[in-house]
């Protein structure tokens, strides 16, 4: 996974609620992670209230586009709070450890894409649903999935 740590950290920011801090980081995010420029450019020109309302519509209005890995009912385990602590990250209790932005941040910190690879099938399903919904958030999942090995299709 060499070189993808910055992308994963930037993708984590893109998949969080778009507050003022996110907007302030857009120029840096755009330059640091060229794979996310399309989304960053969209976010930069979209009025803050409209971007926030769209985030709520996409991610908080139901389970159709859940950012929780457990929602995709995979056999792969979710990361534990102990794993986060072992890598210097604290969970706040606001979000469970399987919240995709937290997993992306952990992946950026550890340098290992194992958790993302284990949940590749669910990430692909989420990406497909976001694409069908027509949201720019699909491009964030496109960039993340492009860094991972293909999903295991079984034999």
Automatic annotation (TrEMBL):
Source taxon at top rank: Bacteria
InterPro entries: DMSO/NO3_reduct_chaperone, NO3_reductase_chaperone_NarJ, TorD-like_sf
Keyword terms: Nitrate assimilation
SUPFAM superfamilies cross-referenced by the UniProt entry: TorD-like
Pfam families attached to this UniProt entry: Nitrate_red_del
Keyword presence, Protein transport: no
Name this polypeptide is given: Molecular chaperone TorD family protein
């Amino acid at each position: 996974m060499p070189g993808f740590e910055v992308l994963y950290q930037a993708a984590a920011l893109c998949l969080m609620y778009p507050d003022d801090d996110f907007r302030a980081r857009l120029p840096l995010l755009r330059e640091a992670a060229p794979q996310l420029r399309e989304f960053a450019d969209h976010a930069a020109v979209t009025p803050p209230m409209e971007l926030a309302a769209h985030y709520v519509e996409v991610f908080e209005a139901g389970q159709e586009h859940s950012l929780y890995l457990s929602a995709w009912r995979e056999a792969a385990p979710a990361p534990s709070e102990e794993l986060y602590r072992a890598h210097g990250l604290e969970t706040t209790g606001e979000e469970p450890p399987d919240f995709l932005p937290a997993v992306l941040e952990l992946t950026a910190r550890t340098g290992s894409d194992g958790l993302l690879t284990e949940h590749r099938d669910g990430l692909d399903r989420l990406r497909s649903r976001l694409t069908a919904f027509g949201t720019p958030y699909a491009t964030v999942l496109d960039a993340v999935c492009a860094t991972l090995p293909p999903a295991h299709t079984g034999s």
